[in-house]
Specification:
Elements: E1 2-10, H1 14-32, E2 35-41, H2 45-51, H3 57-65, E3 68-73, H4 88-98, E4 103-109, H5 122-125, E5 130-136, E6 146-148, E7 155-157, H6 163-179, E8 183-188, H7 194-207, E9 214-219, H8 220-229, E10 236-239, H9 241-253, E11 262-266, E12 272-276, H10 293-305, H11 310-325, E13 328-329, E14 339-340, H12 343-355
Parallel strand pairs: 1-2, 1-3, 3-12, 5-10, 8-9, 8-10, 13-14
Antiparallel strand pairs: 4-5, 4-11, 6-7, 11-12
Helix pairs in contact: 1-10, 1-12, 6-7, 8-9, 10-11, 11-12
Length: 359
């Protein structure tokens, strides 16, 4: 199979971690007889420095022409002085919107080998953690009307949702729940926000199509508390853009390291953008210190969701587990008695495990 991908390394450690992901994809291609066609594009700070905009038109067009997009990370202190609509992060928001990517999947999986890194008590995580946050990505307060008064003494951001926006993300969440444990928690703030009351009404309406899925509703403040009190009560969580942004980061930290978690941003059909959830960490860029596993696991999500290559996705995930089981660690997930490696060697180890050429 020939697979056409757009690659955006981005800023900071983006180039370091994407290089290892491509190495792993090479191993997948060799083992399963696939050919990957890569096209490389600029976005974020590098695009600002080179082309004067966080999202060049050529990047958007190139991504639209691909079957999927793999992204490293964007942003950094170098560009923090810029106004909001000129910052690197604006490029990512515009790319998601321009590609119609309304559904963000963020798995929070605690690997047995990294259980000691989890900040929660042992009895809370006994038996492991495996949950998925489904975040609406192109609506809500990040995209609603915003502004300041003429004298800039006040400012406003508007949380705005239409029925259609809520329905399409709800359908994605219910479909995912059907493939997992048939349990879905919808998170909102319906006791205060009118947009959340609409959210709840629409989710309840969609639920009638999925009799096998057990649905419950939870206020966002309670959900934040329950994630650290009893995270195993959750399987799939669906929520709005801002709430999902916050809760998915919280969920990521109970797994022990933000450097281990991938994400997928999906639109209609099979097209998607895949990236680690961590930032660009410019302070360690180019030093062979970044953890590439979240980006490598994003490749597994890419193979699964955009190309329906389940066996190949499982091969990547199993290779990561094997490397961790063998005791190899980058510095962010190190513990006593483990074997420390850099970014490049971690990529080599995973690629070797996929190819069956472990040293």
């Amino acid at each position: 199979m020939r697979l056409k991908l757009a690659i955006i390394a981005g800023d900071g450690i983006g180039g370091d971690i994407v290089a290892e992901a491509l190495k792993v994809m090479g191993a997948v291609g060799e083992r399963f007889n696939h050919k990957f066609d890569f096209s490389f594009y600029l976005m974020g700070g590098q695009a600002i420095d080179t082309m004067g905009t966080p999202l060049p038109e050529s990047t958007l067009l190139g991504c639209r022409d691909a079957q999927a997009v793999l992204l490293g990370a964007v942003g950094g202190e170098k560009w923090d002085h810029l106004k909001g609509d000129q910052r690197p992060e604006k490029g990512l928001l515009d790319l998601r919107s321009g590609l119609g990517l309304f559904c963000n999947l963020r798995p929070a999986l605690l690997y047995e080998e990294l259980a000691q890194a989890c900040p929660l008590k042992e009895h809370i995580i006994a038996g492991g953690l495996d949950l998925m946050v489904v975040r609406e990505l192109t609506g809500g307060i990040y995209f609603g009307p915003k502004g300041r008064s003429g004298e800039e003494m006040s400012a406003w951001d508007t949380m705005l949702y239409s029925e259609q926006e809520v329905e399409r993300i709800a359908v994605k969440a219910f479909e995912l729940a059907m493939k997992r444990n048939k349990r879905l928690t919808s998170v909102d703030k319906a006791n205060v926000l009118e947009s959340s009351r609409l959210w709840r009404e629409v989710v309840n309406r969609v639920a009638k199509r999925y009799d096998e899925v057990t649905l419950n509703h939870m206020y966002v403040d309670n959900a934040a508390m329950q994630l650290v009190r009893n995270p195993k009560q959750f399987d799939v969580i669906v929520t709005s853009n801002m709430f999902g942004d916050i809760l998915s980061d919280e969920a990521s930290m109970i797994t022990g390291s933000i450097g281990m978690l991938p994400s997928a941003s999906l639109g209609e059909g099979n097209f998607g953008l895949y990236e680690p959830i961590h930032g660009s960490a410019p302070d360690i860029a180019g030093q062979d210190r970044a953890n590439p596993l979240a980006t490598i696991l994003s490749v597994a999500m890419l193979l699964r969701h955009s190309f329906d290559l389940e066996e190949e996705a499982l091969a990547v995930e199993q290779a990561v587990k094997e490397v961790l089981k063998d005791g190899w660690r980058t510095e962010d997930i190190m513990s006593s008695g483990q074997k420390r490696v850099g970014t490049k060697e971690m990529g080599n180890l995973v690629a070797q495990a996929i190819s069956g050429k472990k040293e």
